[in-house]
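A reminder before we start the practical. When you read a complex entry, don't treat the lines as separate problems. The point of joint prediction is that each chain is placed relative to the others, so the output describes one connected object in space. Small molecules and nucleic acid strands, if listed, are placed in the same frame. In the example below there are three entries. Take a minute to note the order of the lines before looking further.
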Amino acid sequence: MLVVDALIVLLCAALALRLLHTPRLAEAVALFIAFGLVLSLAWVRMHAPDLALAEAALGAGVTGALFVNALRRLTRKLGAAADREP
Amino acid sequence: MRASPASGVAGRTARGVATLACAGFAALLGYVVLQAERADGIAPLVRARVEDTGVRSEVTAVLLDFRSYDTLLEVAVLVAAVIAIWSLERGRPAVPAVLQPHDEPVLTALVRTVVPLIVIVSAYLVWRGAEAPGGAFQGGALLGGAIVLVIAAGVVGVDDRMRRAAKFAVAFGLAVFLLVALGTLFGRGALLDYPPALSHALIVIIEAAVALSIAAVLADLFVDVPSVQRADGSDGE
Amino acid sequence: MSGSLYTLLAAALVGIGLHGALVRRHLFRRVLALNVLGSGIFILLVSGSAEPDPVPQAMVLTGIVVTVAATALALALALRVAVQTGRACLPEDDEA
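Here is the predicted structure of the whole assembly.
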């Protein structure tokens, strides 16, 4: 089980680092959704099933969808280059 | 006048300092928290009194009985955020737009199979939240997703009546919660002090109402009409 | 041991999120960074107890819901800034 925990911890940290430092926002949002789902696994490992459900539904699902929606509106208003760093 | 230089040597130095500071802070935080004793907190107190709440799930008991005031404020925050977002959306037209249902056979077939299942699962999650992991927020989020799916797939259209119903649904959860709060305040003298016999029933009623509200909030946040031409030719943005 | 591992992850996420919020300029990226920071703090709260403790779990559940609401509002605000100024970053960070 320690192996599982180590994998989850490494994956979370790697996803977080990558999503904040990739130049493409579309990639960042996709990585954020993945981050939310792995975090949901982490909650299970921490014996917090309510949090796992909430993280998967709200953290990854709703927040991810909010970002995708906002990104779509942004590129529609400002053009395709808006999702790179200004 | 730039407050934060982003390029050049000054920018790189600033970023380097920020990186060092954040890394140092994270290390310090990790060290301090690891040194701290792992305590039981007030979990034993909760476990001792959880039967008084009428529900079996300890998290639900904390959320909707012991700390129900916090949850009331949380629902209020949700509603306030939605109102703030409404106020930011210039372009809600004076002439309301109607989103017509459109016909996409594969998507429609998928939706008609999956959405009833989602509705059942979300109702189950809300209901079981009293005994097991689950509850209003998880079930509400799922139901909201189902609504967005149905509308985005073009199976139903969105018209004025539905928009008004959505606004009513957003307020509904908070209203029910407030009603219970005021009722207990004037009936029993203490805010949200449920009468023990009604505790389980009140908790389930509040959870159901809040779940509906959350579903409506999600549906409202996501259902815009970008592909619909409004009466004045704009697309609402 | 596992509890300590997650506490370390929490500290790392706090550092990563804080750094992202300070250094990155795109407003959406800042919102992402704040979400990561928030997740780190949530893990910190939950991993700090000896046994599964319902009180911090309830607090974090509330925190997750409020974070979703705040993120929605933050993104709506960021979109307004972008529409008004034509750039998706704050004026003082803009070097164009």
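Discuss with your neighbour: Chain B has a mean pLDDT of 85. What might explain this?
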